[in-house]
Amino acid sequence: MEPEPYLLEFMDNHLLSLLVGPQDHHLAYLEKKLGVSLAMRGNRITVHGNEPAIRYAAEVLNYLYEQLQKGAFLDTDFLDHSLQVIAKRFSENVEQQSGTLKKTEISIVTKRRIVFPRTPNQAAYIESMQHKELVFGIGPAGTGKTYLAVAQAVSFLLEGKVDRIILSRPAVEAGESLGFLPGDMKEKVDPYLRPLYDALHDMLPPDQVPKRIANGEIEIAPIAFMRGRTLGNAFVILDEAQNTTEMQMKMLLTRLGPHSRMVINGDLTQIDLPRGVPSGLKNAKEILKNIADIDFIFFDERDVVRHPLVAKIVHAYDRYDKKKQATS
């Protein structure tokens, strides 16, 4: 259930007009960045969205209003700076908490947007990626596994915590050989890696993605290209990991180098490997489950953040699979 909207009241109408911007440009920009809905009526702005994003947006709007009172000029650069200031406040607030981390204050800051968890499992996933060197995200499509992992990787790169991002998927449909497909190597592998490109473009300005790929800060390649390498000072993401073989999974996991992070994502209900070939993700889940330094985050239909109908579809297939297993 969506939380109650948050109401902000601003007494100076002139400053309020500067806050919202010409044709409400500033509000529209903040809506896109924060994933909330902002509606102005009179001298009030109402914030709609999920709980952490609502609080974050309210903090940003109050901060911007305070800066206008001090004579600040609002433009896109100032809005971005303000988002960073409030993100830092949230981060410091988390660090000052005694005992357990407050899940609602977890966020990921990138160039183009600030990403908030929408479910407790997403919050646990982000927390694990920020604190553990190896994290597995296992669950159905639409739960944000890839999107959040790419966001966290971009955030670490921008903060200088890693020197590069390495994004990989198994190209199962092409049997990992890829040789028979038309075009050069980039043209051969791009169709399998498109979801990773899409997530990158959501986190970085459009011109920065090709630049960072060209200078080696971002590398996108099938898992077969990882063999024989040591991946140091990197944030490594393996997507669609259910379609790796046991040998491929072991190979990638043993590539983890110093000062690196690795996130392994997959959906064990969507294995496309040839019949009789065990899934490397399923195998790793059993072998590594008792290692304290590795986190496994499991998602279900309650974490699906796409169209509401997708959650119902996932739930229906889960019931079908359980019924099928019970009768076999």
Number of strands: 11
What proportion of the residues form beta strands (DSSP E)?
A: 15-25%
Strand order of the main beta sheet, please?
Answer: 8-7-9-10-6-11
- Compressed to H and E, one letter per element, the order equals EHHEEHHEEHEHEHHEEHEHEH
- Quick one: overall form? globular
Name the helicity range.
40-55%
- Through-space gap between termini: 38 Å
Structural class: alpha/beta
Biggest sheet, in brief?
Answer: 6 strands, parallel
Radius of gyration: 22 Å
* Uncertain spans: 94-104, 174-182
| Helix segment tally | 11
State mean pLDDT (0 to 100 scale): 84
Keywords for this entry:
alpha/beta, 3-stranded antiparallel sheet, 11 strands
Walk me through this protein's architecture.
The chain is built from 11 helices and 11 strands. The chain has helices spanning 13-20, 25-34, 51-69, 76-96, 120-131, 145-159, 185-203, 208-214, 246-253, 280-288, 308-327; strands spanning 6-9, 37-41, 44-48, 108-109, 114-115, 134-138, 164-169, 218-222, 234-238, 261-266, 294-298. The strands form 3 sheets. The chain has a 6-stranded parallel sheet, with helices on both faces. Strands 1-3-2 form a 3-stranded antiparallel sheet, with helices on one face. A two-stranded antiparallel sheet has the order 4-5. It is of the alpha/beta class. The two termini are 38 Å apart. The protein is globular, with a radius of gyration of 22 Å. A hairpin with a 2-residue loop joins strand 2 (37-41) and strand 3 (44-48).
